[in-house]
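Support request, please re-run this one:
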Amino acid sequence: MKSEDNLIKAALAKDQEAFREIVDIYQAFVFAIILNIIRDYQEAENIAQETFIQVYRSLPQYQFKGFKTWIGRIATNKAIDFKRKRMKEKEGQLSLSDQLLNQDLSKQDLLEDRIIRKEELENMERLINRLPEKYHNVMIKHFIQAKSYQKIADEEGVSIRTVGSRLYRAKKLMRQYREEGG
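Re-run finished. Output below.
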Protein backbone atom coordinates (compact mmCIF):
# COMPACT_ATOMS: atom_id res chain seq x y z
CA MET A 1 0.00 0.00 0.00
CA LYS A 2 1.29 3.47 -0.90
CA SER A 3 1.87 6.11 1.74
CA GLU A 4 -0.58 8.29 -0.25
CA ASP A 5 -3.32 5.69 0.30
CA ASN A 6 -2.47 5.64 4.01
CA LEU A 7 -2.75 9.43 4.15
CA ILE A 8 -6.13 9.31 2.43
CA LYS A 9 -7.40 6.64 4.81
CA ALA A 10 -6.15 8.63 7.79
CA ALA A 11 -7.85 11.76 6.45
CA LEU A 12 -11.06 9.75 6.02
CA ALA A 13 -10.73 8.85 9.70
CA LYS A 14 -10.77 12.62 10.44
CA ASP A 15 -6.99 12.87 10.98
CA GLN A 16 -6.48 16.60 10.35
CA GLU A 17 -2.69 16.24 10.15
CA ALA A 18 -3.02 13.67 7.36
CA PHE A 19 -5.31 15.98 5.39
CA ARG A 20 -2.90 18.88 5.95
CA GLU A 21 -0.17 16.69 4.47
CA ILE A 22 -2.34 15.96 1.42
CA VAL A 23 -2.84 19.72 0.98
CA ASP A 24 0.92 20.30 1.25
CA ILE A 25 1.62 17.65 -1.37
CA TYR A 26 -0.98 18.85 -3.90
CA GLN A 27 -1.36 22.60 -3.33
CA ALA A 28 1.07 23.64 -6.08
CA PHE A 29 -0.51 21.16 -8.51
CA VAL A 30 -4.05 22.38 -7.76
CA PHE A 31 -3.04 26.05 -7.91
CA ALA A 32 -1.31 25.57 -11.28
CA ILE A 33 -4.40 23.95 -12.81
CA ILE A 34 -6.68 26.73 -11.58
CA LEU A 35 -4.36 29.60 -12.53
CA ASN A 36 -3.99 28.13 -16.02
CA ILE A 37 -7.76 28.23 -16.46
CA ILE A 38 -8.75 31.55 -14.88
CA ARG A 39 -5.52 33.59 -15.16
CA ASP A 40 -6.13 35.57 -11.96
CA TYR A 41 -3.65 34.93 -9.15
CA GLN A 42 -5.84 36.09 -6.25
CA GLU A 43 -8.93 34.29 -7.46
CA ALA A 44 -6.85 31.17 -8.11
CA GLU A 45 -5.79 31.19 -4.45
CA ASN A 46 -9.43 31.44 -3.36
CA ILE A 47 -10.55 28.68 -5.70
CA ALA A 48 -7.67 26.46 -4.58
CA GLN A 49 -8.97 26.79 -1.01
CA GLU A 50 -12.47 25.94 -2.19
CA THR A 51 -11.03 22.95 -4.05
CA PHE A 52 -9.46 21.53 -0.91
CA ILE A 53 -12.69 22.07 1.01
CA GLN A 54 -14.47 20.12 -1.73
CA VAL A 55 -11.78 17.42 -1.64
CA TYR A 56 -12.29 17.08 2.11
CA ARG A 57 -16.06 16.81 1.73
CA SER A 58 -15.83 14.39 -1.21
CA LEU A 59 -13.11 12.17 0.23
CA PRO A 60 -15.63 9.48 1.29
CA GLN A 61 -16.60 9.07 -2.40
CA TYR A 62 -12.98 8.64 -3.55
CA GLN A 63 -12.48 5.11 -4.91
CA PHE A 64 -8.65 4.86 -4.64
CA LYS A 65 -8.17 5.03 -8.41
CA GLY A 66 -5.65 7.80 -9.16
CA PHE A 67 -5.83 10.45 -6.48
CA LYS A 68 -3.86 13.03 -8.44
CA THR A 69 -6.27 12.73 -11.37
CA TRP A 70 -9.27 12.89 -9.04
CA ILE A 71 -8.07 16.02 -7.22
CA GLY A 72 -7.08 17.59 -10.57
CA ARG A 73 -10.60 17.02 -11.87
CA ILE A 74 -12.09 18.74 -8.82
CA ALA A 75 -9.74 21.72 -9.28
CA THR A 76 -10.59 21.92 -12.98
CA ASN A 77 -14.34 21.82 -12.31
CA LYS A 78 -14.07 24.51 -9.61
CA ALA A 79 -12.11 26.78 -11.98
CA ILE A 80 -14.52 26.20 -14.86
CA ASP A 81 -17.50 26.89 -12.59
CA PHE A 82 -15.88 30.15 -11.49
CA LYS A 83 -15.20 31.15 -15.09
CA ARG A 84 -18.78 30.35 -16.14
CA LYS A 85 -20.14 32.38 -13.25
CA ARG A 86 -17.96 35.33 -14.21
CA MET A 87 -19.03 35.09 -17.86
CA LYS A 88 -22.71 34.91 -16.87
CA GLU A 89 -22.34 38.09 -14.82
CA LYS A 90 -20.80 39.90 -17.78
CA GLU A 91 -23.12 38.42 -20.42
CA GLY A 92 -26.05 40.44 -21.59
CA GLN A 93 -25.15 43.55 -19.64
CA LEU A 94 -25.13 46.95 -21.22
CA SER A 95 -21.91 48.82 -20.83
CA LEU A 96 -21.65 50.54 -17.48
CA SER A 97 -21.91 53.97 -19.04
CA ASP A 98 -25.05 52.97 -20.99
CA GLN A 99 -26.68 51.64 -17.83
CA LEU A 100 -25.95 54.82 -15.90
CA LEU A 101 -26.95 57.02 -18.81
CA ASN A 102 -30.28 55.23 -19.12
CA GLN A 103 -30.89 55.56 -15.37
CA ASP A 104 -29.96 59.18 -14.97
CA LEU A 105 -31.13 61.08 -18.03
CA SER A 106 -34.67 61.90 -19.05
CA LYS A 107 -35.85 62.58 -22.60
CA GLN A 108 -35.99 66.31 -21.88
CA ASP A 109 -32.22 66.61 -21.39
CA LEU A 110 -30.41 68.50 -24.04
CA LEU A 111 -28.34 66.50 -26.51
CA GLU A 112 -25.21 68.39 -25.45
CA ASP A 113 -25.80 67.48 -21.80
CA ARG A 114 -26.26 63.84 -22.77
CA ILE A 115 -23.00 63.79 -24.71
CA ILE A 116 -21.07 65.38 -21.83
CA ARG A 117 -22.66 63.01 -19.31
CA LYS A 118 -21.89 59.99 -21.53
CA GLU A 119 -18.23 61.03 -21.77
CA GLU A 120 -18.05 61.39 -17.99
CA LEU A 121 -19.64 57.99 -17.51
CA GLU A 122 -17.33 56.34 -20.04
CA ASN A 123 -14.38 57.82 -18.15
CA MET A 124 -15.77 56.42 -14.90
CA GLU A 125 -16.31 53.04 -16.57
CA ARG A 126 -12.68 53.02 -17.75
CA LEU A 127 -11.53 53.73 -14.19
CA ILE A 128 -13.77 51.01 -12.72
CA ASN A 129 -12.55 48.51 -15.31
CA ARG A 130 -8.95 49.17 -14.23
CA LEU A 131 -9.75 48.10 -10.67
CA PRO A 132 -8.74 44.65 -9.43
CA GLU A 133 -11.68 42.28 -9.84
CA LYS A 134 -12.68 42.12 -6.17
CA TYR A 135 -13.02 45.94 -6.08
CA HIS A 136 -14.59 46.11 -9.53
CA ASN A 137 -17.30 43.63 -8.52
CA VAL A 138 -18.37 45.47 -5.37
CA MET A 139 -18.42 48.84 -7.19
CA ILE A 140 -20.70 47.45 -9.90
CA LYS A 141 -22.96 45.63 -7.45
CA HIS A 142 -23.31 48.59 -5.08
CA PHE A 143 -23.40 51.63 -7.34
CA ILE A 144 -24.86 50.22 -10.57
CA GLN A 145 -26.99 47.30 -9.43
CA ALA A 146 -27.93 49.14 -6.19
CA LYS A 147 -27.34 46.10 -4.01
CA SER A 148 -27.02 46.40 -0.25
CA TYR A 149 -23.80 45.65 1.61
CA GLN A 150 -25.49 42.52 3.02
CA LYS A 151 -26.51 41.24 -0.44
CA ILE A 152 -23.01 41.87 -1.81
CA ALA A 153 -21.43 40.16 1.21
CA ASP A 154 -23.62 37.10 0.65
CA GLU A 155 -22.82 36.96 -3.08
CA GLU A 156 -19.08 37.49 -2.61
CA GLY A 157 -18.83 35.19 0.41
CA VAL A 158 -17.27 37.90 2.59
CA SER A 159 -18.29 39.94 5.62
CA ILE A 160 -20.19 43.24 5.43
CA ARG A 161 -17.09 44.93 6.83
CA THR A 162 -15.04 43.53 3.92
CA VAL A 163 -17.56 44.94 1.44
CA GLY A 164 -17.23 48.38 3.02
CA SER A 165 -13.46 48.09 3.00
CA ARG A 166 -13.42 47.06 -0.68
CA LEU A 167 -15.68 49.97 -1.64
CA TYR A 168 -13.46 52.39 0.25
CA ARG A 169 -10.31 51.02 -1.40
CA ALA A 170 -11.96 51.02 -4.83
CA LYS A 171 -12.88 54.71 -4.51
CA LYS A 172 -9.37 55.52 -3.31
CA LEU A 173 -7.83 53.66 -6.27
CA MET A 174 -10.17 55.42 -8.70
CA ARG A 175 -9.12 58.81 -7.29
CA GLN A 176 -5.50 57.78 -7.72
CA TYR A 177 -6.14 56.65 -11.33
CA ARG A 178 -7.91 59.96 -12.05
CA GLU A 179 -4.98 61.97 -10.64
CA GLU A 180 -2.57 59.95 -12.79
CA GLY A 181 -4.53 60.96 -15.85
CA GLY A 182 -7.08 58.17 -16.08
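The chain has a mean pLDDT of 82. Residues 67-90 form the longest helix (24 residues).
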